[in-house]
Amino acid sequence: MEQTIEAVHDLDMLHVTEYDGSWDGFEPGNSLDGTNEVSDKLVTVRSLQSILAVSEEDAGPTRVVTDDAIEDQLETVRTEVNELDDRRDEVRDELRAVEDRINTMAPFVTLGIDLDLLRGYDSLSVVVGEGDSDEIEAVLADSDIETFELFTEDGVVAVFAQAEEDALQDALVGATFSRLEVPEGDGDPTAYLEELEHEKQQLESKLSTVEDELNELRLDHAGFLLAAEEKLAIEAQKGEAPLTFATTENAFIAEGWIPNERYEEFERALSSAVGDAVDIDRIEIAEYNNEGHAESHEEVEREGGNGGEPVGSSVDAPEPESERQPQETVADGGVITMGSDDPPVIQDNPSGVRPFEDLVEVVNRPKYGEFDPTVAFFLTFPAFFGFMIGDLGYGLLYLALGYGLYSKVDSDVLKSLGGVGMWAGGFTALFGVLYGEVFGLHQLGEIVWNGHPPMHKGLQPHYGDYALAWLTVSLLAGMVHLAAGWIFDFIENLSHGLWDAITESGSWLLMLFGLWAWVFSGANGAAPDFLYGSEGVFAGNPLSFGFAGVPAFNLFTIPGLGAPFSAWLVLFFAGLVLLALADPIEVVEFLNVLVNVLSYTRLAAVLLAKAGMAFVVNLLFFGAYSHDGEFHFLIGHGPEWAISEYGAEAIMFPGLIHSGIAAALVGVLILVIGHLLVLVLGVTSAGLQGVRLEYVEFFGKFFEGGGKRYNPFGYERNYTTED
Fold first, then answer.
1. In the chain, what are the domains?
2. Which stretches are transmembrane (predicted)?
């Protein structure tokens, strides 16, 4: 067993599946001898690393670490580190105590009465606290205490009374008074406070000395600790491996998954390392659907290890774990079988796409045989985000922030978010160039497009038709996005048969295209004019694509209504019937083809909202005037020029920069904070809305998830070498 574990671990290839105890005569194995001791040492090493704050940067060159070196050096390091850590804890405790005493001294310094005068009387009771001296005096005057005197300074009150302390306390209950304990010490509280401050400085110096000594230990031993941790982690991993095996007195079975193309390499290396005592048995080569069942398979002849007698016969499909019987084994040997009901998943996306894998895993990891939506996420989310923000300045900032996360942080998740941020920032900058905007200003359009950028956001009345155009584009984007999801689902359902694919997925496609073709054909006059006809946004107002909507094919007039029945609705109702045949319960959700597409109008809504916010920020700072339905910021001219040219009614706002120095300073603050707010809200609005469209609308059409990460038995060495 140990030879096999060593060989398989070195190959770093087998994703081991845990034995579930279902085979008669086989029990889960026990960890190897010495594993508990290794685990204890590993805990010690990691504790020392935590105390010394050891990081990867402290590693130094790789090294060979022997068991003897760990045994000898670890105890020495542990003793030194623990002694210094104990000293540091003691000094920290003393320092906290002194700081607490310093904090309690502040009111007594304010009061200015020697500390020894505030306690120790036989016939007087003294209490010190914070409160209203007039109220305290009034309360005492109404009490049974006849003789008392108050000393007060800045809300700190000392009460001297010829009475029992309990009686004085009872009398003060009716006043606003918070009692303070008189600290230890004698004499002037200011002098005593100076002594405490000096003691604090001494303790801080001691603490600094101890921390310097710990830092020296970190520099001396960090490389050893990192290497020792790696070696012990590898030994612990190997020692605990039998816990996943099925074992008898003389044999064991380990089962798992490897990539099929590496099987020959695995078999050759393991047979060479272990010899005849192990049999390697490939159960089946199969494709799996999203439910984990074999769809197609290749029969595999089971042969004994190293060309021995067959151990089993060919198989058609792996049996369920509860029914499959273990293979015959030789005495004092083992069987490595390649199979399990649920294969692990290796995501193999291009490097530029990989940052989006973590966003997909927020929902779930794709199952084996299921479409991985990462590439689709990569192709659509940055475009959605860039379209909604569409500004060169913001895009470059998102790009820079994303690059900072990607290049500076160690967390894989934050690196992935940085990669996503770079793609989103790049598309935001691209759309910003097309819109001709930088931080909401239109000067970029003047420079790049001579004042005529190819696209407008539709915020200005002169370009208001663009707002309707982007609303229509959002609907079309939703149709395409949802159709892609249902097409993926159609392909996946083909594994169940063509009829299942048509009824479960094709039905939704028919309903989607039937309903929206009916809308874009005119919808019997109910659809808005901008969606179709010569006044449609794509027929030349404002986008000159010449698209005036789809043809309207009316089959007959609905009796009693006089309204024509469109052929496009036949597709919709045909899909509805197919859906009912597949699952009648889903019929109640038939309006999803309408509401899901309408959900994409949030793209146009966020576009206008962000443009409006940036416009208001610039309007307050620069000021602006309106002319022929266009807004122009007062950057090169003051409001007086605009009034002389277009009249006072053209001024939208004169601008804080043109209203004096004080107003200009306030304007700068508004300009900076305002654009930072737009930048942040771009993530929380455009980012979250784009992610929502991916998760809720798109993923819900075909993606289930639930896959397991491919995690081979092995270890990638970073700090140790065996040579």
1. 1-82+203-274 (no CATH), 101-200 (3.30.70), 459-589 (no CATH)
2. 375-401, 421-445, 466-488, 508-527, 565-582, 603-625, 661-683
